[in-house]
Amino acid sequence: MNSSYYQNKINQLEKEIAELEKKIAAESKTEADKSSRIITIQRSITKYTSASTASMRMRQIETLNKDIVKAQQKRADLQKKQADKRTQRAKYAIDLQREIERENKKSVLEQKRIQDLYEQKVEALTKSLNDALMAKQSSVNLYNQTDDSEYDVFISHASEDKTPFVEELVKALQDKDVKVWYDSLSIAWGDSLRKQIDDGLKKSRFGIVVLSENYIKKGWTQYELDGLFDIEMTKGKTILPIWHNITKQQVMDFSPTLAGRKALTSATMTAEEIADTFVELIKSYDNDKTNH
User: Fold this and answer.
1) Residue 204: which H helix or E strand, with range?
2) What number is the average pLDDT over the span 66-74?
């Protein structure tokens, strides 16, 4: 049972009590009317009234008295029913109050349960964010660079772009004595791909990112790019973008951060020219470090 059930019962009983009240009033009126008629009839009987008329009027009074008794009995029955219903109403009122208290207590408990769940979710979310920050910090620590880098540049590219562009670029860089981390050269048969990439990123001074339609679709390239961004967080300028067979809008859709950087493009520069530009960058970088 709920509070609505008890309230409905009370409402129904109050309606029935009101109906009984009307019936009791009607019986009281009947009694009063018949008593008034008896008085009128009694006054009509005088010493001049004939015996037969007096006898008839006495029978009328007797009938009216019987009607009065019936009305009194009926009123008493109605009053008893009314009293019973009032008793029932009082009982339901107590039950209603108890049910309201029970529902209020249940509501408080439910609100507490919801609050506890909310706090648990907040705690879980906070823990998740903290774990993510710790993982991010671990990643930053993984790529913490020293000046004793083993490679001058890490080449991040899609395998579909190896021939001819990436391989031409690697050869041009090597011809200029640039130490290049390039997967075809640096990963041996049976090596862990992830471990070798992590190691290459950690030991490289710069990262050339060959952005192409193939590149932005790859999972491994995204992993490498994330690593290069982590290096920049502790070291500074690291990522050197090259646009290869890709539009500015495609780069913007892939990474607004990269789209905002000055980039070289294979559409207007040869691999040899890009290699020369990189060598000049290294010289300028080393001179700045020496001067400071």
Assistant:
1) strand 204-211
2) 94
